[in-house]
C-alpha cells in the first residue's frame, strides 16, 4: 500500500483548485490525470524576460516586462477586429496592446486609462509600430516583483495556457511532501543534489536548473533499477520447473526453412536456462522479421515435450489471433493441443479452455492479458513467453500472480531494438539473446520520403500498385489530441480512398470491436481487400507477405522506433517492397535527419542508436514514443550518464538491506511508490 504521506500527491487532478471538466480534458490529453502527473510535468524550456523602462525597437521579438500607462482604447471595426489599447512608457514612446476575440470589458478592466500597469509579453514590430499581442501578464505595478525574470514554459495542449499550467504546478507542489532521503548520502553530497522536494520546486521554478533536474531524473532511474533488482532477486529465490524436452515433438516439425545461426544460438541459450531450477528471465531481442516466433515455438515445445505447459502472451487481440493461427499451422499434425484465450472467449468455449488448462490437456495457450488472470489455473505451466512487450510491468505483475508453487520460466521478446546502453535500463539484469541475423532471401525495402503535398501522386501510385495485384498498408498520422481523432483521421482517409477504389479499402483502428477487427484483418490477409487503412494498431506483428507497399502519413510525427516497426509490416514476402514516408511541410533539422536515417538504413539496432543520439541532442520526446513511456522525468542523455550510478546505488542498498527495512530502505520503498513500482514492493512481502 502506498504510504499515506503520498496520498495528497496521488489525488485525482480534479482535486486541484480550478480544474473542472473543461480543463480536465486538455490535461488528460497530456496524460495528466492526477496531481503527481502535474508535479512531474516539468517545464520544457523557459523564456528570459527583459525587464526594462523604455520601449526599444531593438527588443522586438523578445519577451519584455515594462511599466506602461494606457492612454486610449481603439475598438475599431466589427466584432472580429481586435481591441487595442494604446499605451506609453515613461518616455512617452507608444505601444499597442492587442486583444483578439475578447469582449473589450476584460482589457478595459485590466488596463484603466491613465493608470500605470506592469505589462509583460512579446514585443513585436508591425511596420514601424510596436505592439504586444495578448500580454501574458498585466499587473498593478507593486505586484511586478512577483513576475520572475525567467519564466518556465510548459508543454501544453489546446485549451490550456502556460499561466494556468504554472498555477496547477504550484498547487501540485504544495501537495508534494518532504520525503525521507533514499539516495546514498555520499552520492548526494558529491553531486551537490538538493533533497527531493527542493529539487522538484527548483525544476519548476527554473527549467535551466540542471542540478535539480538531474536529481529528479536520478530518482526515477534509481526506482527503475531497484524494481528490476527486486524482481531479479525474488525470481532467484523462487523455484522454477527444470524442463528438458527430448526433441520428439520438435523433430516432427515440418519447417520450410532451416533456422538461422542466430535462431539456433538463441534456442540453445533458452534451453540452457530452462533446464535450471531457477526460473529463466531472458530477453529475446530481434528486429522485425528476424524470426522470433520460431524461437518461441521451440521453447514452448521444449516445455511440452517435458510434460509441462507453455503460454504465450501478446499485447493485442489481433496479435494473439495471429500468433495462434501461425502456431496452429506450424503444429499441424503434431500431437500438441493449442488454445486461445482473450477477453473475447466467452461461455462454453472459455470454460472448456479453462478446464483443459487445469487438467493439462491443453499444452500451449496463446492469448492477451486474460491468460494470467485469477480464474486461469494451469496444471503445470513451465514457460511464459511475452511477445512484443517493451515494458517490464507485465513480467512483474505476472510474477506476483504466479500462483503456481513453481515460477514459470519467462521469455520476453521485443522487436524494439534497444541501444546497448539502454538495455540494462529497461531490462535490468535479464539475460539477453539477440537475433542479429536476418533469415536469408529477404527482399529489400526501399524507403522514400515525400512531402504530403504530393498526396495525389501517392494515390496514383497506390492505384498502379493494386492494379498489378499488390496489397498495401496506409497508416494514418498520429493526431495529438486523442485516440478519437486518430480514429477520425483514419476513417476520413478510408472514406476518401473508397471514393476512388471502392471495396478494395479496409479500415482497422483501435476502437473497433474484436470480431469486426478480425473480419477486416481476415479480408486483408486473404487478399479480398487490397489496402488496409489503419491507425498504429497494426504496428506490431501483423504478417501479410503479399503486402509490399507501406504508406505512412505524417511520418515526422512518429518515433523512429515506431516507424521502423511499421515499415517492418512490408518486406515479408519474396517481392521487393516500398515504404513511402509522407511528411509535413516545415520540418526542423532533427526531423529531417530522422527521416533521412529511415531512408538510409533498415537496421533496427542502428536506428535505435541514432534515434537516441538525435533525441539526446535535444529533440523533445513524443509522449507516444513507444517503449519510452517508462520514463517521465529522465531523458535519454540523463539515463546514459546516471544509469551506472543508479544501478550501483540500488545494488549496494539491496546487498545491505534486501528487505528494505532500514531507514534508508523504507525511504527507498517510498521512492518506489512515488514512481509507481508498487508491484516491486509487493515482491518484498511475498518474498
Ligand atoms: P518476428 O516475430 O521476429 O518479427 P517472425 O517470427 O514473424 O518474425 O518471422 C518473420 C518471417 O520469417 C515469417 O514468415 C517466418 O516464417 C520467416 N522465418 C523465420 N525464420 C526463418 C528462417 N530461418 N528462414 C527463413 N524464413 C524464416
Ligand atoms: Mg513477431
TrEMBL record:
InterPro entries noted in UniProt: DEAD/DEAH_box_helicase_dom, Helicase_ATP-bd, Helicase_C-like, NA-bd_OB-fold, P-loop_NTPase, RecG/Mfd, RecG_dom3_C
Alphabetized GO MF terms: ATP binding; DNA binding; DNA helicase activity; hydrolase activity
GO BP field: DNA repair
EC number assigned by the record: 3.6.4.12
Organism domain of life: Bacteria
SUPFAM superfamilies assigned: Nucleic acid-binding proteins, P-loop containing nucleoside triphosphate hydrolases
Keyword Nucleotide-binding in record: yes
Positions of the Helicase ATP-binding domain: 273-435
Domain Helicase C-terminal positions: 454-613
Keyword entries, A-Z: ATP-binding, DNA damage, DNA repair, DNA-binding, Helicase, Hydrolase, Nucleotide-binding
Classification via Pfam families: DEAD (PF00270), Helicase_C (PF00271), RecG_dom3_C (PF19833)
NCBIfam families for this protein: PRK10917.1-2 (NF008164), PRK10917.2-2 (NF008168)
PANTHER family: ATP-DEPENDENT DNA HELICASE HOMOLOG RECG, CHLOROPLASTIC (PTHR47964:SF1)
Protein name: ATP-dependent DNA helicase RecG
Organism: Sphingobium phenoxybenzoativorans
Gene behind this protein: recG
Amino acid at each position: 500500500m502506498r504510504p499515506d504521506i503520498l496520498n495528497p500527491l496521488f489525488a485525482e487532478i480534479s482535486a486541484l483548485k480550478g480544474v473542472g471538466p473543461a480543463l480536465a480534458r486538455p490535461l488528460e490529453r497530456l496524460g495528466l490525470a492526477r496531481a503527481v502527473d502535474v508535479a512531474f510535468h516539468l517545464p520544457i524550456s523557459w523564456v528570459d524576460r527583459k525587464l526594462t523602462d523604455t520601449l526599444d525597437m531593438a527588443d522586438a521579438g523578445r519577451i519584455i516586462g515594462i511599466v506602461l500607462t494606457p492612454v486610449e482604447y481603439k475598438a475599431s471595426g466589427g466584432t472580429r477586429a481586435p481591441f487595442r489599447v494604446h499605451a506609453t512608457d515613461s518616455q512617452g514612446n507608444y505601444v499597442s496592446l492587442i486583444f483578439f476575440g475578447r469582449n473589450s470589458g476584460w482589457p478595459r478592466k485590466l488596463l484603466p486609462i491613465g493608470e500605470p500597469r506592469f505589462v509583460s509579453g512579446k514585443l513585436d514590430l508591425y511596420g514601424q509600430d510596436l505592439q504586444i499581442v495578448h500580454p501574458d501578464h498585466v499587473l498593478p505595478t507593486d505586484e511586478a516583483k512577483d513576475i520572475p525574470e525567467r519564466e518556465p514554459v510548459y508543454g501544453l495542449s489546446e485549451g490550456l495556457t502556460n499561466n494556468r499550467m504554472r498555477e496547477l504546478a504550484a498547487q501540485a507542489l504544495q501537495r508534494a511532501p518532504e520525503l525521507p532521503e533514499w539516495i546514498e548520502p555520499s552520492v548526494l553530497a558529491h553531486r551537490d543534489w538538493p533533497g527531493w522536494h527542493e529539487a522538484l520546486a527548483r525544476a519548476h521554478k527554473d527549467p535551466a536548473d540542471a542540478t535539480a533536474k538531474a536529481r529528479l531524473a536520478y530518482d526515477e532511474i534509481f526506482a527503475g533499477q531497484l524494481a528490476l533488482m527486486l524482481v531479479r532477486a525474488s525470481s532467484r529465490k523462487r523455484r522454477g520447473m527444470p524442463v528438458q524436452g527430448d526433441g520428439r515433438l520438435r523433430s516432427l516439425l515440418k519447417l520450410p526453412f532451416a533456422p538461422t545461426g542466430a535462431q539456433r544460438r538463441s534456442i540453445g541459450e533458452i534451453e540452457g536456462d530452462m533446464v535450471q531450477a531457477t526460473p529463466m528471465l531472458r530477453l529475446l531481442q530481434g528486429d522485425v522479421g528476424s524470426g522470433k516466433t520460431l524461437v518461441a515455438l521451440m521453447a514452448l515445445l521444449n516445455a511440452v515435450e517435458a510434460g509441462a505447459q507453455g503460454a504465450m502472451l501478446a499485447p493485442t487481440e489481433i496479435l494473439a489471433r495471429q500468433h495462434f493461427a501461425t502456431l496452429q499451422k506450424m503444429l499441424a499434425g503434431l500431437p500438441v493441443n493449442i488454445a486461445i484465450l482473450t477477453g473475447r472467449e466467452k461461455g462454453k468455449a472459455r470454460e472448456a479452455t479453462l478446464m483443459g488448462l487445469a487438467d493439462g490437456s491443453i499444452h500451449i495457450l496463446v492469448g492477451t492479458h486474460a491468460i494470467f488472470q485469477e480464474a486461469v489455473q494451469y496444471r503445470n505451466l513451465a514457460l511464459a513467453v511475452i511477445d512484443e512487450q517493451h515494458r517490464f510491468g507485465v513480467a512483474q505483475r505476472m510474477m506476483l500472480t504466479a500462483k503456481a508453487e513453481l515460477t514459470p520460466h519467462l521469455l520476453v521478446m521485443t522487436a524494439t531494438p534497444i541501444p546497448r546502453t539502454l538495455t540494462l535500463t529497461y531490462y535490468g539484469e535479464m539475460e539477453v539473446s539477440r537475433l542479429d541475423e536476418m533469415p536469408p532471401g529477404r527482399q529489400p525495402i526501399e524507403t522514400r520520403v515525400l512531402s504530403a503535398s504530393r498526396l495525389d501522386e501517392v494515390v496514383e501510385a497506390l492505384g498502379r500498385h493494386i492494379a498489378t495485384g499488390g496489397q498495401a498498408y496506409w497508416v494514418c498520422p498520429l493526431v495529438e489530441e486523442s485516440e478519437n481523432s486518430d480514429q477520425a483521421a483514419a476513417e476520413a482517409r478510408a472514406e476518401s480512398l473508397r471514393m476512388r477504389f471502392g471495396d478494395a479499402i479496409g479500415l482497422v483502428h483501435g476502437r473497433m470491436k474484436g470480431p469486426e477487427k478480425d473480419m477486416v484483418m481476415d479480408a486483408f490477409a486473404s487478399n479480398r481487400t487490397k489496402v488496409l487503412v489503419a491507425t498504429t494498431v497494426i504496428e506490431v506483428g501483423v504478417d501479410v507477405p503479399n503486402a509490399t507497399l507501406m504508406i505512412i502519413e505524417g511520418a515526422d510525427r512518429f518515433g523512429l522506433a515506431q516507424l521502423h516497426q511499421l515499415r517492418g509490416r512490408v518486406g515479408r514476402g519474396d517481392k521487393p517492397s516500398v515504404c513511402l514516408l509522407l511528411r509535413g511541410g516545415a520540418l526542423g533539422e532533427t526531423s529531417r535527419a530522422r527521416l533521412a536515417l529511415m531512408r538510409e538504413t533498415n537496421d533496427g539496432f542502428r536506428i535505435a542508436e541514432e534515434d537516441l543520439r538525435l533525441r539526446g541532442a535535444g529533440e523533445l520526446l513524443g509522449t507516444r514514443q513507444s517503449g519510452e513511456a517508462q520514463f517521465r522525468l529522465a531523458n535519454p542523455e540523463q539515463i546514459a550518464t546516471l544509469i551506472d550510478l543508479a544501478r550501483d546505488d540500488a545494488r549496494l542498498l539491496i546487498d545491505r538491506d534486501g528487505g528494505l527495512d532500514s531507514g534508508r530502505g523504507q525511504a527507498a520503498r517510498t521512492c518506489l511508490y512515488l514512481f509507481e513500482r508498487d508491484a516491486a514492493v509487493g515482491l518484498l512481502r511475498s518474498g
